[in-house]
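To whoever is on call:

I kicked off a structure prediction for a single chain this morning and the downstream step that reads the tokens threw a length-mismatch warning. I double-checked the sequence; it's 256 residues and nothing unusual in it as far as I can see. Pasting both halves so you can look.
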Amino acid sequence: MTFSIIGNGNIAWFFGGRIAAARHRCVGVFGRNPEATRQLADFLLVEKCGKVEDLEDKLSDICLLAVSDNAIPEVASKLKLKKTVLIHTAGAVSIDSIQNAAPDRAVLWPVYSIVRTNPPGHRDIPCAWEASSDRAKRMVQEIGHTITDHLFEARYDQRKWLHISAVISNNFINHLLAICEQICTENKVPFSTLMPIIEQTIERIRQGSPRNLQTGPAARNDENTISTQLNLLENHPAWQKIYEAITESIKNDRNR
């Protein structure tokens, strides 16, 4: 199978590398940043690269649209692919956003945080797919299997909820840990002291429901501790709001 890529970010590099390693041939890389586009093309050993408008129909069997969520409709509006399967890689964007760009279209979204400088070396990367036709289904599944051992179908109405869950479980938790790191730094205590309890939290949820494993002052309805900790955060009102909101959410959940 031949493939082309629109985009030059983390997903473009990761997907491109994985698909090429499975001996599918990349025949073109396209994007708005000429230097970044050329770098990805060189990595994939591809001669042809250029602007999105330079992409020709039938250049490849599939075209990966690996750009930011907000850019998908704009880029898709520049495409008319009657023979090429167009696949976007966003979890929170409908397959219909590219319906005018190609009759055969699909979505392939990794439920994973991909960073170009530290790409995963394993295949335990859940990927959701959706397709508009049998041809698109066949091709998106074929390239999906080059990337992961955990490939599953998910419509947009499912993916959008999975996406918000991924944002909360990855991005929000990382932000909370960044707050913890700053608190430790400001008060001259080692952030590394928290690593065992962080690892314990992850290990516990492998064995049971997070809801049933909830501990802490909010779960105990320990108002004295809650009040004391809110006062400690008085110089950080944004953190106070986060603490209050999550505390109330835990209390409400326990009272259901």
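Update from on-call: the warning came from a stale cache, not from the record. Cleared it. Sanity check on the structure: The mean pLDDT is 96.
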